[in-house]
Here is the input.
Amino acid sequence: MIERYSLQPGNFGGDTPKEFVLLSIIAQSFFQPFSLEDNLLVILTALTAGSGIGFNRAMLFLRDGTKLKATTWLGPRSPEEAEAIWTMLSSPGIGYAEVVAYNRDLVTRMVKDIQPKLKLFIYDLESKSLSLPALAAFKKEIILVTEARSEPLVDPDFINFIQVDSFLCLPLIAQEEVLGEIVVDKGITHAPIEARDIELARLCALLAGNYIYTTNLYKKVVEMEKMAALGEMAAFVSHQLRNPIVAIGGFTQQMLSSPCQPERCHRNLNIILEQVKHLEDIIYKLSHFLKITIRELQPVDVQSILPNLVERPDIKIKAAKKTISLKMSENLPLILCDPVYFEEAVVNILDNALDVTPEGGKVYLRARPYNNKYVLIIIKDSGPGLDEKSHDKLFSPFYTTKENGTGLGLLFVKRIIDICDGKMEVQSKSGSGTMFKLYFKVQERRLS
Here is the structure.
């Protein structure tokens, strides 16, 4: 007997343990491509949803330098609004995306009333006289406050804002670094905050701290990659432009420094013209690579494009004394891409294949369905293949094995395939040629 279950968490009823509800809400965030703000909103939802841990309201502080700043408030403004929210969140069929959308809208609606008040709560974490709630972040401790109005460590302005006697401070910590804080209360139900509530809230705080830390870390990695790419681009541009510019300057100087014979002047001018064309080619390839834009994927007929592509004059000239073997399955389905960019992607790889294939050699171009979801385009050359180093750096910006190559061609192809939601594989062995596999998604058939 075989039983099947959905990977996505299901809906839970009112008798479901809070631990399962919390785990369900948090787990669904891993299936969604939402922002840090949305994922933190999920944490606040898990804390305040009626069927969740059971707090009614949550206030999020984020660290900005040495300051702890209030940024978000989530919660009802009245028992009636609370009842409406809890009813909505526990409705059958309500999933993660709906909860995020609803709470995002709720936060937006509260901005006019709440946001000006939130901006007043800024605490200096380096101050020697910190009060609660900021003191919890500074101490890196979960702090439960009861009888808050008579507690001297509590900021009186904060008490006037939340209007409750009990609240829980949850510092958001990762790698011993203070990243923020969440303050929760039961200002609508006025139920006591129990030990079990604190334990579950602790999990939410750990997850929220991890969300913030990993997002910040990812931003740093992206920034480092950008700087590395800029460095490589600067080195590439410097290297590519230096020789033509030196040649142009040198031959121009010869013509200006002393009279030259007509034949020498003509030769110099031809060299200068060639170098200018080379510069134009470099600039065109760079700008063309940076301008890939596909507004909307559209149906593309591979079966009509590939035969015409093989007959292109530039391809036929390059394929002189070589053979291009084209085979396609009958009745290939349409793919989703852009016809112009699809052709450029295939031409780019075909052009490389012809470059490395010796005279008398053969380049194979194949197209067939794959797994009912893709059309597979295969381009295989008869060249020397790639060593391990070249294979590993194949898609690195500006890496090329050609004397006059830019190192952008394959990266250009990869960007097109990524935009078209396809896949790309490269198989190569030194001495055995190289095979590129391009997978393009099939257009789904519309039901009539």
Observations:
- The CA atoms of residues 319 and 354 lie 6 Å apart.
